[in-house]
Amino acid sequence: MTAVWGHLFHRQRLFPTPTGRHALWYFLERIDLQAGDEVLIAAYNFYVIVRLVVQKGLVPVFVDIDPETLCLDSQDLAQKVTDRSRLVIVTHMFGNPANMTEIGAICRQHELLLFEDCAHGVGTLWETEQVGQAGDGALFSFGVEKLINTFGGGMLVLSDRLAAGYSPPPHPVSKLTSFVDTFARCIRSVLTAPRLYGWTLYPATRLGEWTLPQLREWIIPAKDDPDYRFVNRSRAPFKPFMKQMQTLQLARLVENIARRRDIIQQIKTGLSHIAEIRFLDEDKHGRSNGSYFGLYVPDPAALTRHLARHGIGSNPQEYYDCAALAQFSAYRPPCLHAGYASDHLLRLPSYPWLRPAEIEHIGTTIGAFFGHG
Q1: What's 191-251 look like in SS3?
Q2: Alpha helices in 45-174 (DSSP H)
Q3: CB count, 10 Å around CB of 311?
Q4: Per the CB 3.0–4.6 Å rule, which of 52, 66, 167, 235 could disulfide with 73?
Q5: Model-level pTM?
């Protein structure tokens, strides 16, 4: 992995993993915390990250987010550190950099381990450096909807101290399981292309709502499954061809990010006159990679339906306020901003291949929804 990513990482060791969640699981095994130790984690999150913490016998302590970045709020973090706190997991949500200056200082002050969830963060910069290098470890994900897509695969980043003498555990997966998993994600990657999605996966998703729930689950994985358990052998291993795909995509990364950021700015400019819309401040603590484009609206579900009728895909409830989910009720503190994001955030397309007419169509369609046509 160093041969592929070495130009972005300077002080860490890099290990290929089957998925991003495998990277987090391996990290939790490496640091060997005790049952009941507390892990501070942003409430607005992918529920699987919290499930892994709980499955390890650790106690998640939900921290609210900065509403302008969707990332863990350093001020709320400082207030929730206790004598049982051992680890902070900070997510660079939507590819927006978290406030690593203050978060890192809090971790050093209280001698807490620091792990960065960079599933959305390839090319995201904090203090001119690729995120994932501020603490003890980090995860990266190369799934179907990520900026670097290798039909699966992930990467574990470890500090020199934790990497000493370390190698990832064996990954016992049959050749058939490995082939089927990789092939299915290859097909899904093709079908999720915006110009095919409306003719393929979108109608299949609607069909799955009524008759084939397994089909819907394959297309749109569950975002709140209380029965989820991490199983090491459940996914295909990292494969040699993934490094080759990464090399090719990393060569275009700067251009890809620049195009995404330009598209986001164009759409923002076109919608800036609509009072009902609130924008994020993606670059508040660094430089976002434009991986996902989110904005706040009063009724994301209604706007999503309106956009779909005009051929525009969007995604409400991309993630949830995990502190409000029933499966985590034992750990529930109030997280005002995470709850608001869960109820009001909508993700719009920012694909680098969008044409000017398509970008304009997104803006005018949203304007019409708010009576600004």
Answers
A1: HCCHHHHCCCHHHHHHHHHHCCHHHHHHHCCCCCCCCCCCCHHHCCCCCHHHHHHHHHHHH
A2: 47-55, 74-80, 100-110, 160-163
A3: 13
A4: 66
A5: 0.91
137 occurs within a structural domain? yes
User: Of 238, 261, 293, which residue is a domain's last?
Assistant: 238
The alpha carbon of residue 288 and the mean position of all alpha carbons in its chain are separated, in whole angstroms, by 13
Name the token pair of 313: 């895909």
Query: Does 7 share its domain with 152?
Result: yes
72 in Cβ contact with 103 (< 8 Å):
yes
- pLDDT of amino acid 230: 94
47 with 227: CB under 8 angstroms?
no
User: How distant, in Å, are the alpha carbons of 41, 95, 107, 118, 329 from that of 147?
Assistant: 23, 9, 29, 11, 33
Give 79-105 pLDDT, tens digit per residue: 999 999 999 999 999 999 999 999 999
